[in-house]
Write a structure and sequence with these properties.
The complex is a heterotrimer of chains A (496), B (97) and C (482).
Chain A (H helix, E strand, L loop, with lengths): L7 H9 L5 H19 L2 E4 L1 H16 L11 E5 L26 H8 L3 E6 L33 H8 L5 E6 L5 H7 L2 E4 L19 E6 L2 H11 L17 H6 L6 E5 L9 H16 L3 E5 L7 H16 L18 H12 L2 H14 L5 H22 L4 E5 L15 H5 L6 H6 L3 E8 L5 E8 L4 H14 L20
Parallel strand pairs in A: 2-3, 2-4, 7-8, 7-9
Antiparallel strand pairs in A: 1-3, 4-6, 5-6, 5-10, 9-11, 10-11
Helix pairs in contact in A: 2-3, 7-16, 10-12, 10-13
Chain B lengths: L7 H10 L6 H18 L23 E2 L9 H5 L5 E2 L2 E5 L3
Antiparallel strand pairs in B: 2-3
Chain C lengths: L2 E12 L25 H4 L8 E2 H13 L3 E2 L2 E2 L2 E4 L9 E4 L6 E9 L6 E13 L3 E3 L9 E5 L6 E7 L6 H18 L11 E11 L9 E6 L2 H20 L8 E5 L4 E4 L12 E2 L6 E2 L2 H9 L5 H12 L3 H7 L3 H11 L5 H19 L10 H12 L5 H14 L3 H8 L7 H14 L1 H8 L4 H13 L6 H13 L1
Parallel strand pairs in C: 13-14
Antiparallel strand pairs in C: 1-11, 1-12, 3-7, 4-17, 5-6, 5-16, 7-8, 8-11, 9-10, 12-13, 14-15
Classes of the chains: A alpha/beta (496), B alpha+beta (97), C alpha+beta (482).
C-alpha cells in the first residue's frame, strides 16, 4: 500500500503523528502519476518541483512542532478552468493555450492558506462544455475503471486523478452536473455546493448563474474537510453568500433516524439503465435500515430541465466567451485582413466544435426577435423548476436519485450526436437551475465493474444535511470498497 | 421531417454576431444540428408561463457594495505578459476597416 | 415646409470616485503610462468578477436627485454585448430596462427672451467606461491601432434628455448648466476636453404645420461646448438644405469633424448592432433604500442656482455678476474665499469678472490654476485702500502679479511705484503745473471743467502716475480758487 492510496484525512493524521513526512507523500503521488497518467491522461500540467519544495517546507514546520493549517500536506489537483497565478490555465481549449493568469482564484488562495499542495491542473471538456471530457482540445481522459471508457465530464481529469490515486482531492466545477456525473462514473464522492456557497472569483465563467466550484474526493469525510476550507463569503464575488460556514465534519457524525427522504418518480422513467435502477433501490433499503423515511415524491417539470438548462447556459456562455478575441492573450491566427476577420479567425480556429455550437445557440437565443421566445421563456420555466423543489423540500429533508442514467459509456460512443450527449445530464441539470446543493457517491458496481453513483439533493444551504446522509450511507452500506486496476486494454488503440 | 426553425442565412447572421466563421460544409452541419436542438427546445412551449416571473437571479440578496478605496493595480509587464503583439506598452490590433 | 428643430442629448459624465466602478483601481488614469492602471477585473481577464463601488451609487443618486428624477428603488444591470478592441469583456455592464433614475427635468433660461424652458430628463443610469484606442501617426495611413485599458471600468453616469431642445444654443446652455451642476455636486469635474464629460446628440426637423416628426440623425465626436453648438447648427442647416432640395434624410450616425467643420456620415463603417441585452448574472438587483435617497437629497451640496441667489442676497451683487461668479464651482469658490477676507464684495466681483478673467482667458487656464490666489488679490486691494497705489497703478501691478506669480507688495516695493502720499511733495508739483499752464486756469474760470482734468493729467504725468488723482483734483481746485 502506497501513501497516495490513502484518503486526505488519513494522510493528515499520519503527518501530524509524524508517522510519515509530506515529502514521502508527494513522492508516492508523483510516482503514481508517472506510472499511470500516460494511460489516464488526467493532467495537463504538473507542478512537481514546486510541490516537493512546499512539502519540504511543511516537513520543517512539523519537525519544529509548529501549528499546522488544516490541509497541510494534502495534494490537490485543480481543474484547468480555475485561475492559478504563474501556471498555465487553458480551460481545455486551444484558444487559451499558453495563457498564464497574473492572479489566483479565491479558492486557490484559501487552499494554499490551509496548507494544501496544488500538484497540477487537470484535463476537462473545453470551457466545461461536455459530459465526457472528449471535448478537450488536448485529447480525452480515460476512466481508470476501464480505459476504453469516458470518465464523465466536464471535470473528467480531476475525477480520474482522484479515482486513480494520483491525487487525494481535486477541485472541479459543476454547471449542469460536471462534478457529480464524473464522480458517479468513477466511483468518487463529488459535491456541488449551493450556488453562492463557494466563491466564483477566478473561476473562468461558462454559465454565470449556474457555475459552482465543487470537490471530488475519495470519501465523504474528505469532502467535508475540503468544503470547510473553500466555502465562505468573498467580497470579490457579488454572488457570494454572506453566511457562516458550518463545521461540516462535525455535522456528518449525527445519525439519520427519521430523516425524510423523497424519491422523485420522474427520475426513474425510461432511459435509465436497469443496473443503475437496481443499485438505487438497494441503496434506498440501506437508508431505510438506518431509520430514514422514504416516500415517492414528484418534480413535475423535470422533463423541461434539459432544454431550459441548455438555453440559459448557452446564452450566458455566448456572452462569457466573447472576450476570447486574441487581443490581450490567447490564440492568434496567422492570417487576417482586418480587425473583424482577425476576431473571426482567432475564434473559429481557437474554439472546438461543441463550444462553437453552444455559442451559436446562445447567441441565437439572445438575439433580437428571439429573446422572448427562447431566453426569457427558459428563465420562466426555470422558476417553475425551482418551485418544484421548494414544494418538495417543504415535505422532505433530502431527495435521493441516480446521478447518471447509465454507467460510463465508451469513448466516441456519443460524440457524433450532441443531443444524445446532452441527455446524460438529465438528473444533474435541474439542481443547477434551482441553485441547490447535491452530492454524488458510489452505491454499487455494474456487472462490467463500472461504478454506479447515487445523488443526494438538499435545499439551499443544507450541505450539512446531505453530507450527513452521505456519510451515514457510506459507513453503513455493503458495497465493496475497491480500487480500479488501471490495466491497458488487450487490443491496440485503446489509450489514445 | 423537422420543419426548419433556423435557415442557413440566419446561421450566417448569428455567426457574424458571434464573430465566428464557417465553411460551407460546416454551415450545413451546424444548420441541421441547430435545427434538431431547437426542435427539442420547442418542448418548452407546452408550458403556459404567462403569469410566471423569470428567474434572473438565483440568490435573493441585494447587491453587495464595496468601499471606495484604491488598491494597487497590476504592473504593465503583468498586463502585457500574455499578449502576442504589443508596442510601447500598448496592445496592438489591426485597424478597424 | 416650415421646420422646427428637435434635438435630444445623451451625455456621459465620469464620476469622481477614488476607485473604479467594479474594482479598486484608481480613477486617476490621465497621463499614466498605458496599461498601468488595470487589474483582472477591469481587464476582463478570464475568471474575474465585478463588485460595485458604493460611492458610484451615491454619486449617481446625487446626480439623479439634482436633476429631479424619480429614483427606482430597485434597478438592475444588463450586459450590452458587442465586439470592439477597447471593450475587453466584449460586453459593457450597463443598465437597460430599469435605470437608476427616470422622469427628471432641468430648467434653462434663454438669454434674450429671459423665458424658462423645461428640458425633460428621460433617464439617468450607471455603466462602465471602455478603454482607449490610439493611432500612430496618421489615422488613415496606419494599418494598426494601439489599445490602452487604463480607462476601462471608470464609472459613468449616462444622462439622456427628451428631445426638448429647440435650437443648438439651447443645447449649449443646457450643457453649461449641467456642467456647473455636476461640479457643484462634487460628482464630476465636467471637462469636455479631457473627456470627463461627453455629449452625443440626436437631431431632426419636425414639420411645423403637421407636427410630423422627421428622421433622427445621431451626431457624435463633439469635444467642446462650442463644437456642440457648431455641429448641431451645421446638421440643422444640412437637413434643411436636403429637405429644400426634395431629398430624404437618411437615419444614420454622423461624426463631427472639427478641422473641416462638417458632419461626416459613418454609414459605411456602421453595422447594425444587435446588443443582445440580458440581465447581468454576476451582479444582483440594486436596491436603494428610501431613507438613503432622503439622506442624499437632504445633504445635497449647494446647486449653482441656489448659490447664485445666495450671492445676490448675501453679497448684494447684481444678477449678472452672480451668474458669472457661479458659472463654475471653482469660480464661486474663489469668490467666496475673497469675500471671507475682504469686505467690499462688489469690488471683488469687478476685479474677478474683469481683469482676472481677462488674463485667465488669454492664457487659457482655469481659475483654480490662477497665479493670483484669492489671498493675493485681497492683499493688492488693501494696498489700494491704504493709498499705497492708485486704482490705475493697480492694473499694472495686477498684470505683473499674474505674469510672475509674485505678491503685490513685493512688486510694488521693487518697482518703487508707490503712490506719493507726501502732501508737500505733491503741492510742489501742483504749483509747478499751475504756473506752467495759465491758459488752463483761465479756461476753468470761464466754466470749462475739462481744463481741470487736463491739469490733473499733467500732475499725473510729472509724478509718473504716482499721485493720487482724487487728491490732486481737489488740491488743484483749492489752489485755483485762491
Amino acid at each position: 500500500m502506497t501513501l497516495n492510496q490513502l484518503t486526505a484525512h488519513e494522510v493528515i493524521n499520519l503527518i501530524r503523528k509524524k508517522k510519515i513526512t509530506v515529502y514521502e507523500v508527494m513522492h508516492d503521488i508523483f510516482n503514481q502519476i508517472d506510472k499511470v497518467d500516460n494511460l489516464i491522461r488526467a493532467f495537463l500540467v504538473l507542478n512537481k518541483e514546486e510541490a516537493l519544495k512546499q512539502a519540504k517546507e511543511i516537513d520543517i514546520k512539523v519537525k519544529n512542532g509548529e501549528n499546522l493549517p488544516p490541509l497541510a500536506g494534502v495534494a490537490v489537483a485543480v481543474k484547468d478552468i480555475i485561475a492559478t497565478r504563474g501556471t498555465e490555465t487553458t480551460c481545455g481549449s486551444k484558444i487559451l493555450k499558453g495563457f498564464i493568469p497574473p492572479y489566483n482564484a479565491t479558492v486557490i488562495n484559501r487552499l494554499k492558506e490551509a496548507g494544501a499542495i496544488i500538484i497540477g491542473k487537470t484535463n476537462m471538456d473545453e470551457f466545461a462544455m461536455g459530459s465526457s471530457t472528449e471535448n478537450s482540445a488536448f485529447g480525452p481522459t480515460h476512466n481508470p475503471w476501464d480505459l476504453e471508457r469516458v470518465p464523465g465530464g466536464s471535470s473528467g481529469g480531476s475525477t480520474a486523478a482522484v479515482a486513480a490515486d494520483e491525487s487525494f482531492v481535486a477541485l472541479g466545477t459543476d454547471t449542469g452536473g460536471s462534478v457529480r456525473q464524473p464522480a458517479s462514473l468513477c466511483g468518487m464522492v463529488g459535491l456541488k455546493p449551493t450556488y453562492g456557497r463557494v466563491s466564483r472569483y477566478g473561476l473562468v465563467a461558462y454559465a454565470s448563474s449556474l457555475d459552482q466550484i465543487g470537490s471530488i474526493t475519495k470519501d465523504v469525510t474528505d469532502c467535508a474537510l475540503i468544503m470547510k476550507v473553500i466555502s465562505g463569503h468573498d467580497n470579490m464575488d457579488s454572488t457570494s453568500l454572506n453566511l457562516e460556514v458550518p463545521d461540516y465534519l462535525k455535522s456528518c457524525q449525527a445519525g439519520i433516524k427519521d430523516l425524510k427522504i423523497g424519491v422523485p418518480k420522474e427520475y426513474f422513467i425510461e432511459g435509465i439503465d436497469p443496473e443503475v435502477k437496481d443499485a438505487l433501490y438497494k441503496a434506498l433499503k440501506i437508508f431505510e435500515k438506518l431509520g430514514a423515511n422514504i416516500e415517492e415524491a414528484s418534480l413535475p417539470h423535470t422533463e423541461y430541465s434539459l432544454p431550459t438548462y441548455y438555453l440559459i447556459a448557452t446564452a450566458e456562455a455566448s456572452s462569457n466567451l466573447a472576450r476570447y478575441d486574441g487581443v490581450q492573450y490567447g490564440y492568434r491566427a496567422e492570417d487576417y485582413e482586418d480587425l473583424s476577420s482577425m476576431y473571426q479567425r482567432n475564434r473559429s480556429e481557437g474554439f472546438g466544435s461543441e463550444v462553437k455550437r453552444r455559442i451559436m445557440l446562445g447567441t441565437y437565443a439572445l438575439s433580437s426577435g428571439y429573446y422572448d421566445a427562447y431566453y426569457l421563456k427558459a428563465q420562466k420555466v426555470r422558476t417553475l423548476i425551482k418551485e418544484d423543489f421548494d414544494k418538495v423540500f417543504s415535505k422532505y429533508d433530502i431527495l435521493v436519485t441516480p446521478t447518471s442514467p447509465t454507467p460510463a459509456f465508451k469513448l466516441k460512443e456519443k460524440v457524433s450526436d450532441p443531443l444524445t450527449m446532452y441527455l446524460s445530464d438529465i438528473y444533474t441539470v435541474p439542481i443547477n437551475l434551482a441553485g441547490i446543493p447535491a452530492i454524488s457517491l458510489n452505491c454499487g458496481y455494474s456487472k462490467s465493474n463500472l461504478p454506479i453513483g447515487l445523488q443526494i439533493i438538499g435545499k439551499h444551504f443544507s450541505e450539512e444535511t446531505i453530507l450527513r446522509a452521505a456519510f451515514n450511507f457510506e459507513q453503513n452500506n455493503d458495497v465493496e470498497k475497491k480500487k480500479p486496476s488501471i490495466t491497458p486494454a488487450k487490443h491496440k488503440g485503446a489509450a489514445e | 421531417m423537422t420543419e426548419k426553425i433556423i435557415t442557413k442565412k440566419e446561421v450566417e447572421y448569428v455567426a457574424k454576431l458571434a464573430k465566428l466563421e464557417f465553411n460551407e460544409g460546416e454551415k450545413e452541419e451546424f444548420t441541421s444540428q441547430l435545427n434538431s436542438i431547437l426542435d427539442y427546445f420547442k418542448k418548452l412551449n407546452e408550458l403556459n408561463t404567462e403569469k410566471v416571473e423569470p428567474t434572473a437571479y438565483v440568490i435573493s440578496m441585494p447587491n453587495p457594495l464595496n468601499e471606495d478605496v484604491v488598491k494597487p493595480s497590476l504592473s504593465q509587464d503583468e498586463v502585457l505578459s500574455n499578449a502576442k503583439y504589443i508596442k510601447k506598452g500598448y496592445f496592438k490590433v489591426p485597424k478597424i476597416m | 415646409m416650415k421646420e422646427e428643430i428637435v434635438i435630444g442629448l445623451e451625455i456621459h459624465i465620469q464620476l469622481m470616485t477614488k476607485a473604479k466602478m467594479f474594482c479598486h483601481c484608481s480613477t486617476d488614469y490621465i497621463g499614466k503610462e498605458p496599461n498601468t492602471n488595470t487589474c483582472p477585473v477591469c481587464l476582463g481577464l478570464p475568471g474575474s468578477l465585478p463588485v460595485l463601488n458604493k460611492k458610484v451609487l451615491e454619486f449617481a443618486i446625487r446626480t439623479a436627485v439634482a436633476l429631479n428624477c424619480e429614483i427606482n428603488q430597485i434597478s438592475r444591470f444588463h450586459r450590452k454585448n458587442y465586439f470592439y478592441p477597447d471593450l475587453p469583456k466584449a460586453y459593457q455592464i450597463s443598465q437597460f430596462d430599469i435605470p437608476l433614475g427616470v422622469n427628471g427635468y432641468m430648467e434653462i433660461s434663454l438669454p434674450k427672451s429671459k423665458e424658462k424652458h423645461r428640458i425633460g430628463i428621460t433617464r439617468v443610469h450607471i455603466e462602465e467606461d471602455a478603454g482607449k484606442l490610439v493611432h500612430e501617426g496618421n489615422i488613415a495611413s496606419s494599418s494598426y491601432s494601439l489599445v490602452d485599458y487604463n480607462r476601462c471600468g471608470i464609472p459613468l453616469a449616462e444622462i439622456v434628455t427628451e428631445p426638448d431642445f429647440c435650437s443648438p444654443e439651447e443645447a449649449r446652455i443646457f450643457l453649461v448648466k449641467l456642467r456647473s451642476i455636476v461640479q457643484h455636486l462634487g460628482v464630476c469635474d465636467g471637462n469636455m476636453e479631457e473627456g470627463s464629460m461627453r455629449c452625443d446628440a440626436n437631431v431632426s426637423l419636425r414639420d411645423a404645420k403637421t407636427g410630423a416628426l422627421g428622421t433622427k440623425v445621431e451626431i457624435k465626436n463633439m469635444n467642446s461646448f462650442k463644437a456642440v453648438k457648431k455641429a448641431l447648427q451645421f446638421e440643422v442647416d444640412r437637413q434643411k438644405r436636403l429637405l429644400a432640395e426634395g431629398e430624404k434624410i437618411v437615419q444614420e450616425t454622423r461624426h463631427w469633424d472639427e478641422s473641416k467643420n462638417v458632419t461626416i456620415s459613418m454609414r459605411s463603417k456602421e453595422e447594425a448592432h444587435d446588443y443582445r441585452y440580458f440581465p447581468e448574472p454576476d451582479l444582483l438587483p440594486l436596491k436603494v433604500d428610501v431613507k438613503i435617497i432622503g439622506e442624499i437629497r437632504k445633504n445635497l451640496p449647494e446647486l449653482p442656482e441656489a448659490r447664485r441667489e445666495r450671492f445676490i442676497e448675501n453679497y448684494q451683487i447684481p444678477k449678472y455678476d452672480a451668474e458669472i461668479l457661479t458659472s463654475t464651482k471653482s469660480t464661486g469658490d474663489y469668490y467666496e474665499k475673497t469675500t471671507s477676507l475682504y469686505p467690499n464684495s462688489k469690488v471683488l466681483s469687478n476685479w474677478i469678472m474683469g481683469e482676472l478673467m481677462r488674463y485667465l482667458n488669454e492664457e487659457k487656464i482655469e481659475i483654480d490654476e490662477s497665479p493670483i490666489s484669492p489671498e493675493k488679490l485681497v492683499e493688492m486691494l488693501k494696498l489700494i485702500d491704504e493709498g499705497v497705489i492708485s486704482g490705475k497703478m493697480a492694473k499694472d501691478v495686477f498684470e505683473k502679479m499674474f505674469k510672475t506669480g509674485r505678491d503685490a507688495s513685493q512688486i510694488v516695493k521693487e518697482s518703487g511705484i508707490t503712490q506719493i502720499t507726501d502732501e508737500n511733495k505733491l503741492f510742489e508739483v501742483i504749483d509747478n503745473v499751475i504756473k506752467e499752464n495759465p491758459k488752463s486756469i483761465d479756461d476753468f474760470n470761464q466754466g470749462k471743467e475739462k481744463a481741470l482734468n487736463f491739469l490733473v493729467g499733467q500732475v499725473m504725468r510729472y509724478t509718473k502716475g504716482r499721485a493720487k488723482p482724487d487728491f490732486v483734483f481737489e488740491a488743484i481746485k483749492q489752489r485755483i480758487k485762491k
